[in-house]
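User: ok so my PI wants both of these folded by tonight, can you help

Assistant: No problem, let's get them done. Here's the first:
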Amino acid sequence: RRPAAPATAPPHWLESGPPRPPPAPHLMDGVRVVMSALRRDPSSPLSGVKTTSRADTVFARLEAERAGADDALFLTLDGRLSEATSSNFFLVRGDRLLTPPLTAGVLAGTTRTWLLEDAAVAGLGLRPGAVDLTRDDLATAEEAFLSSSVAGIVPLRARIAERLSQSGPTVSEASNRAPAMIASAIEPNTRPSPGRPSRVMVR
């Protein structure tokens, strides 16, 4: 059994607030990313699990900073695209909206799930799918973006020296719709008041 916390232990507060929109430059110019030298192992027991012990994420962020980029993309051991350090990855090809499958070691993000389930009916006019993708797919994509419930949806640049694509219609429309989707997914009694954070006390 875990020992009880001392009666004199001070309480700790966790504070949360409504998600902030991504910075305007990211929406206009895109997020600059590089490929991390680290590889994701989909067979790892921690694959697809959100934990606070992510040394690989910290290392990949440092790689990006050293290269003058904003983020890094991971590849799997066999060279498939996986995800970014704290967001999922999507690309547009024709009438398809594609993202790596969970078997590529990705986290099943909230925004990712929404896009896969509702993209066709959310006015995007695309057929979503989770399929294996490679760097060649990224290089030939019409649009590409990163998604997360915190940062929203932002266009992606595959390399820091060139833009993959401008913020196209899919990125713009999905970015506009994402906040309403996130708000509707929050239980009413846990939703913070507009402009005000919510607090939860833990011991």
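One down. Here's the second:
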Amino acid sequence: SFSKAIEVAVGPDELILIVCGNTVVIRSERLTVLIDPSDQAGSFWKSVEPDIVLISHAHADHFNGLANTSLPPGSLVVLSSLSRSIVLETLLSMDSAPAASFVENNCHVMSPGDIQEFSGLQISAYRGGHCAGNLTYELHFKNEGMRVLAAGEFSLRSIGGEFGEIQAAREPDIMLVDGHHVAHQHHPGESFLQNNVAILEIL
């Protein structure tokens, strides 16, 4: 996590990543992807016109920026079924009916194991393990030949008897990991050493 936005260009075809806190913007030649639009990340992403919005899980600091931001009509919001229900309920409780309506009408629900392709971007969903409904996303930008693993707040702990499954990811070129992995005080019940070993094994 960063206190201010950091921008980097990666790869021969320059995949552009802008990161601040929980929120990430990825720009390729064809697509712009917005991950976990959070108010806590400030306003750096609010001028972005994303083609796809990925929500990893339904904790408010990973989607509350939607409440006061207008997305382009064609934007697709990708999230799990449980996250969808909680996000809609939370946005309505924030008096943001337009944002809730947008998510409801433009959402694409994914489950662990699903693979979907959108305009040259292949999205694979894995169980994240941080909380119920949490997804980790692997993004394969086919034109750029780059794989980005948005690990987020991945955890190997059991949620309802089901564990995070980040090990299924396929050798990403870029891995985005939330700083909570090394901040034991944030989630003291988790095994951060175990989580980080799993992450390092992928790299």
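Residues 23 and 36 are 5 Å apart (CA to CA). DSSP finds three helices and 14 strands in the chain. Good luck tonight!
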